[in-house]
């Protein structure tokens, strides 16, 4: 099963890379949106292959459905006459983008490489064998564990987050209800 | 059992053992796809016959014995129809949209536990995963409406998507009530928490069942919420420009989802695959004990088809809502009611354990 898992992982990893590259270079903006959605869904699937079911399901629900439908709505209703390529026309932008990507990549490698090294005492090696890791992750994925973590250990960030959502709701209410005076 | 058989076959023909897992996954997929196709063929006929009975007509009764082959005849007709792509349409998306709508349904079938420990995908968050995956199909509607390059398709898909999104919220919160009661997001464990008829979650969470059923009707675009594709009043919905096999795929996915949602209702509120009496008849017979999953499958099917019948009954009974009624019903009535249900269940759980 380990072999199959890593094969599926690699397939989805490849899909993430291809779909995000396609999202940048696609000649129609609708294709860009849909390939970005494929990228979101593949990230969710990556979490699922690593037994992080809750994060995977949340990723699919929030990014794969919520955000992507907003994106699709916004672009499909407004973007009929959108310019073919938004970003790749300006050489300065291309150059800055490459610099940013290289910086990000080097930072990522700098932080990840000690963890992946089996000799170092990084985060992974302390959990023991692969099966034990999977078992501990399974424990983390249950509703009870997540609920306890969110509402006991991390209650302050959670409440801050709900404050943000409340601000969003109030803003939407203002935007939607405010136009009545004009009519 | 079957996995061991596959492993034995592999070692008999001295094939690489590493592929056993792969063949097992393909086998599971094939079984689930077969269940889905058979169920859809049955449902289409059932819908027509049930509606005929409820409206005092005869229904299809000419093709095959008692009209049983009617759906197959219809499917063959659709297969041989011309596959038209409109001139201004976006060819790639137009072809991809039915697939985008159909593929998540298969995953949903994989997540339903058909018998104890016999779900295609075993996950500790299968309920959340199911709700997430089942709403991915909405993207197929958006792209179908846009790719058709037809304003009626576009408006139709907009109606469907707006309705789907609005009714998603009460649906998820009603399901959350069951998660609260059982303390688990795994469908298998939710089923195991309601082992006989007195433990069924419909008893504490009757409001939740009502909300879930209503939202299911809306998500499936069925009566009384079928105004996105009200064929007697509007140009059809997102599928206006579709014909032949692509149209059939939308049709198939809708019926498959009807069954899937009914199975989820049976799982969440009516004890899923468990017997209502708390014991299995096959459990008493020594030789049949090993295949008690057949009886569990039977119970799930029975409960699911009762709910499917209920949904068809509603279709034959209730008139269609108006568009503004539809939205205010979801946001002003169902959503507050689902929050109230959640709070009541939390109090119930806290005080009665």
Tell me the name of the CATH class of the largest domain in chain A. Answer: Mainly Alpha
Rounded to an integer in angstroms, the radius of gyration calculated over CA atoms of chain B is 21 Å
Helix content of chain B: 55-70%
The N- to C-terminal Cα distance of chain B equals: 39 Å
What portion of residues of chain B belong to β-strands? under 5%
Biggest contact: A-B, 30 and 32 residues
- Beta strand % of chain A: under 5%
Structural class of chain A: mainly alpha
Task: Supply the number of structural domains of chain B.
Answer: 2
Q: Which ranges of chain B are low-confidence, i.e. pLDDT below 50, for 5 or more consecutive residues?
A: none
**Main pleated sheet of chain A:** none
Helix-strand category of chain B: mainly alpha
Assembly classification: heterodimer
| Average predicted local confidence, pLDDT of chain A | 79
Q: Please write the string of helix (H) and strand (E) elements of chain A.
A: HHHHHHH
CATH architectural arrangement of the largest domain in chain A? Up-down Bundle
The number of domains of chain A is: 2
Q: Tell me, what's the shape of chain B? A: globular
